[in-house]
From TrEMBL:
Residues 6-62 form the 4Fe-4S Mo/W bis-MGD-type domain. The chain holds residues 2 to 708 of 922 of the full protein. GO terms for biological process: cellular respiration; nitrate assimilation. Belongs to the prokaryotic molybdopterin-containing oxidoreductase family. NasA/NapA/NarB subfamily. It comes from Psychrosphaera saromensis. GO terms for cellular component: membrane; oxidoreductase complex. Keywords: 4Fe-4S, Iron, Iron-sulfur, Metal-binding, Molybdenum, Nitrate assimilation, Oxidoreductase. This is Nitrate reductase. Its cofactor is Mo-bis(molybdopterin guanine dinucleotide); [4Fe-4S] cluster.
Length: 707
């Protein structure tokens, strides 16, 4: 008789920034069932449809199994030697800024740490950026301007306790479904809880709302400046909090003096009544969470939008308390982990700053590295532009498919065609980006990798290896380590397990980080630096900081009213509403918005494998209001050409009455590989926020015609 050996292994879901815990049953070493971990604080046993169908998405079909150079299979020593030699040769000839890494919020913190260490401390450039630039870099810059640190002040538990939940630029029902379930539960438990959804499109999330504010696309700064004005006019300001804990109030208060209801209503295309209803609720509620996501961040004024929101929370003291705070929600499972290790071109490790010499010296001293980057590197859009101009000659892309996800596909494609040396580490054998790889390196993926991720509420959880990797696939950290060795950096990359890297990362976070129990830097997990391998493997999900003052983590970082600015006071930031970079015109009369579907993830290389996940939406589409389709002589399911000044796609038409007149929506998931004419990223230009460098992926002007 056949023997069945079953085990239950704890891990976390890779399909969004909620970071749900999952309990995986393996049968004879093969994952066979998944349930939500009942004790994981992110989900308390819940899963959404993507998490529930996780097992269907992890088979080995289509996996990249062997290292390849110029289309020929090679062994690992040959592949890593070749990558190391080419990178070293280009660096020797053209300097450290002639090479770049483009990484991903899909890789684990340990992978991110070692990639960042190699680029910033050993190659000596800050040319390492990540697809998280497309996700939340505006939120990072907004927090840093206000708090002096990239600190998310909230926890998911705040959603259970707030009186007023304001969702801005977030379709949580589709993009963060388990948090949306939590909101539904909170509302059911207490019908007095008010929910306001602010979004140009009436999305599925608006169904839960007491009010939906269909503001004009891009007018968020005006809306929140209007709120601040209303709070001042209606004596709803917490002067005591402002005086004790904030700076810059007088200037900011003066700057919003003209943002009265009439002016704001005009700027946002809302009625004064709609505005007043929201403003009154914010003024009267004792607690408020503003929950914001890509609709705020992916904008040419994304950072200002974040600060306009934060200003209102500071002005009312609604921060650092249960049920209150400006809460940026990340898209990817490990966007936060990437921030923590400094895996962005304008950050150093452990939330330190490249511009700060003390920080550069400290990191270099800790790493005992021969060099350290002296200035910020190229952010995503800039990075591919620099490849195009020949300034960057070699790029190593890890676990991401920029040809499909970056705006202005034509520019990115041209860059990869031109680039002297392109290395791609990926778990899949084929994707749009791999087409241009000189070297393909097979990487492990979820279920095979061991390491940590940090979710949107700063909670560090384990992802666990459940099964053997197929073919010769290796972990990203192993591949980077092996290349580092062959570049001559052996003793500083002497890691045998992801735990070695995690402990070093934890040690660095606490290195010279204040005395007397007060950390001068927010990100400090030094209490985790002594974990045994067993403790690392069994790590209980925990919210940072985790140090001698907060050995069990900390739920609300600013509960003591101390911020990480030199004065320890939060900063009001004076922000002025601006129009998006493009305006609809006679040639391009529509505004195209883009976003995710509930049942798919990124470019569908894994979720696209699941029949259950493909059931509801089988093909890409363009949403339009029915009467606008009629005006154009179009009917449902017609194939239409959608063209912007940057590129065009062909999509079947679907109707959505939730759109505003003149607005369209299309999902982001399809690539050249899965639907050759439907990669919507082609239509978006290279407009970025001037501070964060985050591209404006929610707004481009287009025209529509029958195909
Ligand atoms: Fe996974 Fe996100 Fe769904 Fe949770 S909400 S199960 S993390 S996709």
């Amino acid at each position: 008789t056949q023997q069945f050996e079953q085990k239950t292994i704890r891990s976390s879901c890779p399909y969004c920034g909620v970071g749900c815990g999952v309990d995986i049953t393996t049968t004879n070493g093969i994952p066979s069932a998944v349930v939500g971990s009942p004790n994981h604080p992110a989900n308390l046993g819940r899963l959404c449809v993507k998490g529930s169908n996780l097992i269907e998405t992890i088979d080995h079909d289509g996996r990249l199994l062997h290292p390849m150079i110029d289309g020929k299979q090679v062994d690992w020593p040959q592949a890593t030697q070749h990558v190391a030699e080419k990178f070293s040769q280009i660096i020797d000839e053209f300097g450290p800024d002639s090479v770049a890494f483009y990484v991903s919020g899909q890789i684990l913190t340990e992978d991110y740490y070692i990639a960042n260490k190699l680029m910033k401390g050993f190659i000596g450039s800050a040319n390492i950026d990540t697809n998280s630039r497309l996700c939340m870099s505006s939120a990072v810059a907004g927090y840093k301007r206000a708090f002096g640190s990239d600190t998310v002040p909230c926890s998911y538990e705040d959603l259970d306790h707030t009186e007023l939940l304001v969702l801005v630029g977030s379709n949580a029902a589709w993009t963060h479904p388990v948090l949306f379930q939590r909101m539904e539960k909170a509302k059911l438990a207490n019908p007095n809880v008010k929910i306001i959804v602010i979004d140009p499109r009436r999305s599925a999330t608006a169904e839960l709302a007491d009010a939906h504010l269909p503001l004009k696309a891009g007018s968020d700064v005006a809306l929140f400046n209007g709120l601040l004005h209303y709070l001042i006019q209606n004596d709803a300001i917490d002067n005591q909090y402002i005086n004790a804990h904030c700076e810059g109030w007088a200037t900011t208060a003066k700057a919003v003096a003209s943002s009265d209801l009439t002016t704001t209503a005009l700027l946002c295309d809302l009625t004064e009544q709609e505005l007043e209803q929201f403003y009154q609720l914010f003024a009267q509620s004792k607690s408020s969470v503003t929950f914001y996501s890509q609709g705020v961040n992916q904008s040419s004024q994304g950072v200002d939008k974040c600060n306009a929101i934060i200003n209102c929370h500071l002005a009312t003291g609604k921060i650092g308390k249960l049920g209150s705070g400006p809460f940026s929600i990340t898209g990817q499972p490990n966007a936060m982990g990437g921030r923590e290790v400094g895996g962005l071109a304008n950050m150093l490790a452990a939330h330190m700053n490249i511009e700060d010499k003390t920080h550069r010296d400290l990191v270099q001293e800790f790493w005992q590295s021969p060099t350290i980057c002296q200035k910020s590197g190229a952010k995503a859009v800039d990075l591919f532009d620099k490849i195009n101009s020949g300034e960057i000659k070699a790029v190593w892309i890890m676990a991401t498919n920029p040809l499909v996800s970056m705006p202005n596909r034509n520019v990115v494609e041209q860059a990869l065609k031109k680039c002297e040396f392109v290395v791609v580490s990926d778990c899949m054998e084929k994707n749009d980006t791999l087409t241009y790889a000189d070297v393909k390196l097979p990487a492990t993926t979820w279920g095979e990798k061991d390491g940590t991720v940090t979710n949107s509420e700063r909670r560090i959880s384990r992802q666990t290896g459940l099964m053997a990797a197929p073919g010769e696939a290796k972990h990203d950290w192993q591949i980077i380590r092996d290349v580092a060795h062959k570049m001559g950096f052996t003793e500083h990359f002497n890691y045998q397990h992801s735990a070695d890297i995690f402990k070093e990362h934890a040690r660095l976070s606490g290195y010279k980080n204040g005395t007397d129990g007060y950390a001068v830097r927010d990100f400090d997990i030094s209490a985790l630096s002594q974990l045994s391998l067993n403790e690392y493997n069994r790590l209980t999900p925990i919210q940072w900081p985790v140090n001698s003052t907060y050995p069990n983590g900390r739920q609300h970082i600013f509960d003591d009213g101390k911020f990480y600015t030199p004065s320890q006071k939060a900063q009001f930031i004076n922000v002025v509403a601006q129009l998006p970079q493009q305006i609809p015109n006679v040639e391009y009369p529509f505004i195209l918005n883009s976003g995710r579907l509930r049942d798919q993830w990124h470019t569908m290389s894994r979720t696209g494998k699941s029949a259950a996940l493909a059931k509801n939406v089988k093909e890409p589409f363009l949403f339009i209001r029915p009467e606008e389709a009629e005006k154009l002589g179009l009917t449902k399911s017609d194939l239409v050409k959608v063209a912007s000044p940057y590129g065009e796609v062909i999509l079947p038409l679907q109707f959505d009455k939730g759109l505003q007149t003149g607005n369209l929506f299309a999902p982001i998931h399809w690539s050249q590989l899965t639907a050759p004419t439907a990669n919507i990223a082609k239509c978006f230009g290279s407009f970025v926020d001037p501070i964060s460098g985050q591209p404006e992926c929610k707004f481009t002007v287009v025209k529509v015609e029958k195909y």
